[in-house]
Hints:
The protein is of the alpha/beta class. It is 31% helix and 16% strand. The protein is built from 5 helices and 6 strands; from the N terminus they run βαβαβαβαββα. The chain has helices at residues 20-26, 42-56, 79-86, 104-112, 162-177; strands spanning 15-16, 32-37, 65-70, 95-99, 128-132, 147-150. The longest helix is centred in the last third of the chain and has 16 residues, at 162-177. It starts with 14 loop residues before the first strand and ends with a helix.
Amino acid sequence: MLEQDEPVTQDMQIEAAAALGACFNAAASVPRLVFLVSPTCEVCISGAQSAAQAVLSLPATSDFRLYLLWLPVLENDSIEAAAGMRARFSDDGRARHFWDDGLRVSQAYHRVLQLGQRQRRHRVAWDLFLLYRAGVTWDEVPPVPDFWMHQLFLDDVPKLEAETLRRELEQMIGEQKG
């Protein structure tokens, strides 16, 4: 797992990003989504809210997990800003929030998704919406997602459409039951 020296902030219901891999693996029997977003980027927030609303509107019996990874990418990004955004999301037990203080998880995703091979200013992965089948585990680095979408300037990966993400998740939930 990735090591990070950041505190867990239970009072704000946001966990340290270092805990994400363990949480991901603990829920390996179900599909999982990971959203990487800035808490002060309105485009990121809008996309994350739309996608979260779409997947969390599935019946409570739909077994999956949603992990929102808040990132300090922009100047005003902070754990306090992330806590403020966290409050704008549904209080659904299937969703958990994390803070990637040192951007270690984001940078690991940047490598895993090979974003460095694309024309990009940043060396971090953000504004991404990743989906994993049941059974996928997180070892030293995050696993490659089975399906992912973005709100960036990438031509070879689908742009975020909340309903498409929901349909992909529903298909994975169906495979798990079938």
